[in-house]
Amino acid sequence: MGKVAQELDLTKDQKQQLKPILQEEAQKLKALRTDTSLSRQQKRQKLQQIRQDMVAKIKPILTPEQLVKWQELRGTKHANRGLKT
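The structure corresponding to this sequence follows.
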């Protein structure tokens, strides 16, 4: 969270509010990756739901400018995953 917090210029209060949300997302994503009972399509749908839930929790914490910047950073991060070989 350090680099993101710096990029977004988060306040101490914002960091404290975001930390448990990001930890919860990480736990859910880890559980999703290890869940062998779901099909690839089901995993994709569940992943979308996890991300939507997280955005809903984060929106009220960030300023509109921070939210735009955060979405840009996440978009770049996800786009770069496709470049790895």
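Residues 15-81 form one domain.
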